[in-house]
Amino acid sequence: MLSYIHHLFAGGVWIPLGVTLVAGLMRGFAGFGSAMLMAPIFAILFGSAEMVVTIVAIELVVSLQLFPQVRRRADWKTLAPMSIAACIAMPLGVWALASVDKGTIVTAVSAVIVVFVLLMWSGWKYRGGRSTAATVAVGAASGAMMATTSVGGPPVLLYLLSGNDPPDVNRANIVTYCFLTQFLLIVIVLASGVAGWEALARAVVLFPLMIAGAWLGGRLFHGLASERLYRNVALGILLATGTFGLLRSFIV
Predict the structure, then answer these.
(1) Rounded CA separation 226/194 (Å)
(2) Where are the domains of the chain?
(3) Which of 16, 19, 152, 229 has its CA 20 to 30 A from that of 59?
């Protein structure tokens, strides 16, 4: 068993374990950020296609854990068309995943993270209405991005957070959207043959750390820490991760 784990994590297991634990904290508290934290690092360690399956499988386990707690607060009228559009767009993202080299994907996902963090810190908000057309467009963009990079959250987050919903509704919407889209993405990527079953095996090893982090993050969300402080810390970590990915892409 230990030899198989060593084979799965030929570059060392401690970095993926640590990254996964911190990602769980971010996901449990704020409902976002975990995939963005893991994606550049896991793409470098495992390859882009393997990274997508590993991250989405881990995220799916957390979604299964959190969804029962939040489903009653979710805005289903918005989430249903958004999720359907995302699932329809996923094959396009898988095609890009199979066609684009790892370095380009690391650069792309790192750039998305940096832009997202800067927009969040700047206070920018989407000012358009939540029409069906806009909701479908956001879902389609997110689905394609999720399949290519595992990071489909930024367009959805910026769209959902633009309204006047309270924090618990925003958190419920984000968790529910992930829950509705992640299983199908894993099936599509594995069926396409661009990633192997070892990507799922890595997820099995890592997800206990994600669950532990998400549980602790959930406790923090319910009053043990300042939400504003935690969000700023989380965004700072994401900015550092995205910057690292960009610098590595230009240096290597």
Answers:
(1) 42
(2) 2-251
(3) 229
The rounded distance, in Å, linking the Cα atoms of 179 and 220 is 22
CA–CA separation, 209 and 100 (whole Å): 30
Nearest alpha carbon to residue 209 among 73, 34, 8, 24: 24
pLDDT at 136: 94
Measured CA to CA, the distance from residue 242 to residue 37 in angstroms comes to 8
Q: Which pLDDT band, with edges at 50, 70 and 90, does 221 fall under?
A: low
Distance of CA 102 to the CA centre of its chain: 18
Tokens of 200: 């799922």
What lies within 8 Å, CB to CB, of 87 at 6+ separation is 143, 181, 184
CA-wise closest residue to 145 among 178, 97, 106, 179:
97
- Write down the pLDDT at residue 125: 75
* Side chain identity at residue 146, one-letter code: M
- pLDDT given at position 1: 60
